[in-house]
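Appendix B. Extra example for self-study. Work through it before the problem class; the solution is given directly after the inputs so you can check yourself.
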Amino acid sequence: MEQITIKEIARICGVGVSTVSRAINDHPDINPETKKKIMDTIAKYRYIPNNSARNLKRSESNTIAVLAKGISNPLFGKMIQLLEKDILGKQYLFVLQQVDEEENEVETAIRLEKEKRLKGIIFLGGTSHPREDLLRQLTVPFVICTVNAQLSEETDGFGVVAIDDEAESFRMVDYLCSMGHKKIAILTALERDSGIGRLRLTGYREALEKHGIPYDESLVVSMQPGQGTYTMENGYEQTRVLLEKGVQFTALYAIADTIAIGACKAIFDAGLRVPDDVSVAGFDGLDLADYYHPSLTTVEQPLEEMATEASRVLFELINKKQGREYQIFRANLREGQSVRRIQE
Amino acid sequence: MEQITIKEIARICGVGVSTVSRAINDHPDINPETKKKIMDTIAKYRYIPNNSARNLKRSESNTIAVLAKGISNPLFGKMIQLLEKDILGKQYLFVLQQVDEEENEVETAIRLEKEKRLKGIIFLGGTSHPREDLLRQLTVPFVICTVNAQLSEETDGFGVVAIDDEAESFRMVDYLCSMGHKKIAILTALERDSGIGRLRLTGYREALEKHGIPYDESLVVSMQPGQGTYTMENGYEQTRVLLEKGVQFTALYAIADTIAIGACKAIFDAGLRVPDDVSVAGFDGLDLADYYHPSLTTVEQPLEEMATEASRVLFELINKKQGREYQIFRANLREGQSVRRIQE
DNA sequence: TTGTACGCGTTATCAC
DNA sequence: GTGATAACGCGTACAA
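Solution. Structure tokens for the complete assembly:
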């Protein structure tokens, strides 16, 4: 199939290619009439410039990539839409790259940066302790979003847009304690988790400590590895095992809403009720948490603000070429019907 | 930031660029030693070929695009992952493009095809009656997945991988009738919907007809337009309105699980129970339907098989350059706890 | 205001 | 087995 090129358009219009190029790219010095004629021809022949050639020629390809760790993560849906709108609105090209759970997102970013001559990168999700030697191989600014990563002073030209996972996790567990719970199980990520799991687990420990509740390992349950750590299935399965063990607890805190919902199912299946027999709390503030029955008490991340901020920070970094910017948002403890106050 | 190019590598190794190219692309006639030296240098300098240049040069860019209408659609998550794996495995480049609800996915595809020199396209979601004049502007094979689109004889070089939305919808409503329900409300897409909504609504009408139940317009509720037709929020809101109107019905059939979950919430909020007071049925077979409480009776689409088949069909079309292939899968009516038998 | 010619980084086609 | 070199389609400096 013959693809029509800029040369063809030029030939048809009886002008040079540069004139066509000027018309396409809204250059100032061009005769309006000539421009109109060219644009009409372009429309008529449905000519669309070849992206590869443009990117190749332009020293700067004006592309921004969003790397989402787990595209199916319901957390990211809205954010991606917002980011795309923002980025396209700024006349940048938008590339969405999905990163598998076993994949190292920074390695993917490095490859992508060179392949596509990126101008900037936004990470959605990923590890909270990325390998900085890899990060430094990135020569363009990047923003880590939804993960409260802490980077050393040597790394530069990046931003972090997130909530304070540790503090917010603390708040939730603190809240559970204040509702009279003393035996609080936690469904958390893998032992060796490098993502938000560790941060949220730390918050859990600190809250218990504050309330003088000893940390009980039998109440700490790790999700099983495999495809999708933060899945309902995983939450269900681990909760089922926990219940079968006969460990006593009055509240169950899951570090993700999806896990919490799986947990609820296991509780129901065991013939128990939420929150009458077990209180359940989640984290993230998915829409779903609200629509679940009973609605889930959860920590709501301001996802849309975070997306907007992530793109703002990125463009700022692109302009300044350097800097370090931490934007930590405050989350909202959203009370649902899944946690009840119990008597001491 | 200086990007290293193939020329640099060639210079460093003391060879010509073509030799380096041969090493990169696994060409046969190259001295293993030379190749090793080159590959080592490449690794050392972390050279990564520029994608734009490759695509520009290669007559065929070997890129396949997946256009997903609504990336946040939980239906697509797993499918996208499978598709990506399949496509990369076949040594093709994979591009994921999100399409907004108001956007015409075919127009996006046309632009993308030229911009990126695509080799093939997979549509996830979209309209069931696409504009064929636009589709014919696509010069590469495409597969419409999850939508049972019917195209005229004049269009060629495409595949459809879907379930029979009408028949499966019929089956669900038929099932509801067989459970003793006579007043069955439906939550469907927009009046003027051109997607699966219309097909599923038709199945609903036909099932009622079979059981001699008159079609009652007051039981047909359309989702409101705006951002996200198939959302829990929309389902909630429309069900709330329906309940307030005081229309009587014993079962509620939503054409998507997400809508069904929103509906359940509205029912609970009205002080009613599912399924005791109202039976609820969904469509799609999301994981979530299973984990919801009560678990949702739904029509389960074989999403993974469909994804695998979609890529198989696409590659077949790419090789044959033409053809029309309809792969209609059979869905599975998954009984949950949200529908109960009622006495006549 | 417009056209010509060059180069972006890569692969393929030749000679050698 | 290897190295020049001509494309690929576009943007732009420069000349006209």
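Self-check: The CA atoms of residues 40 and 287 of chain A lie 46 Å apart. If your reasoning did not lead you there, revisit section 3.
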